[in-house]
Amino acid sequence: MGMFDKLRGKTDKNPKIEAVSRNSIKEWNDKGISLYNQGKYKEAIKYYDKSLKAEPNSAEVLNNKGNALRQLGKHKEALSFFDKSISINPQNSDPWINKGATYYDMELDKKAIECYDKALTLDPSNVMTLSNKGAALANSGDYINAIKSFDKALKINASDENTKINRSRLVEHVIISSAEKGYENFVNGNYSKSMKYYNEVLMVDPTNINALTTKGTLYFLENKYKDAINTFNKGLSINPDHSILWFNKGEVLENMGNNSEAIECFNKTINICASRNSTSQAEADVNVTNRDLIADAKQHIQHIKRL
């Protein structure tokens, strides 16, 4: 008897009523989305709840409700809805992205990155995910990988403004922060640490003359003359009129015993500085005037000629 009751129940369903019900579910969800986009998160949740009451296993609506809860600061509750959505449709990257964003809001960057990585296995070309991952990596202090993530996003969509802004801000931060730490360690004689920080600068800004100049000097102080020359040459390929680079290269060549080449470098320094105001700084990143640098270069030439 029970079995026939069940069969009769199935055949009693009215297709037209089912269609209306499905339309209502969609309308409630759409209304929730509209309210969400207006910043009316509590009102949006009411419509998501209506939709979920009729269809509790809608992965889309569960994800949408999670988003609204996240905006209200109800992070733990939001995470539970994202997890429900994922359990119903594991191949959808959206709840993973939103779960990552929630962890990001909670300042749990490692967990956020794990979620973004999962989302990227499902949708590797998602610009927003790559950009969000870059932000989480930056917050965790992993600046180099953050830049790489931003660069991947921009390779897919070079016009993505949010990614461009975040990358630009991070590059500026790394240059200032790492250069300061590099200089501090340089002054204190911690050359290996100083090199590490200047390498960070060059990772995000390969044409940074100040970093190249100091890196070359660090090689020189560690008697790594060939590395020093190569580094100074990189700088000179970017700015052929950088008087300090020519002077420093001359010093290295002099220590290597390449006197004729050293004199050429010192003469190059003199010619560049002579074409400028004698009392102005030789270069923006050093506290030495053109006049003083000319005098130093001439002293080196005289010393070499006396040998």
UniProtKB/TrEMBL annotation:
Task: Please identify the protein, giving its name as recorded.
Answer: Uncharacterized protein
Source organism, top-level taxon:
Archaea
Gene3D superfamilies attached to this UniProt entry = Tetratricopeptide repeat domain (1.25.40.10)
Record bears the keyword rRNA-binding: no
Answer whether the UniProt record assigns the keyword Isomerase to this protein. no
Task: Give residue ranges of the TPR repeats.
Answer: 25-58, 59-92, 93-126, 127-160, 209-242, 243-276
Coiled-coil ranges per UniProt: none
PANTHER family per UniProt: CELLULOSE SYNTHASE OPERON PROTEIN C, TPR REPEAT-CONTAINING PROTEIN MJ0263
Please report the organism this UniProt entry assigns to the protein: Methanobacterium subterraneum
Classification via Pfam families: ANAPC3 (PF12895), TPR_1 (PF00515), TPR_16 (PF13432), TPR_8 (PF13181)
Q: Which keywords does this chain's UniProt record carry?
A: Repeat, TPR repeat
InterPro entries in the cross-refs: TPR-like_helical_dom_sf, TPR_rpt, Ycf3/AcsC/BcsC/TPR_MFPF
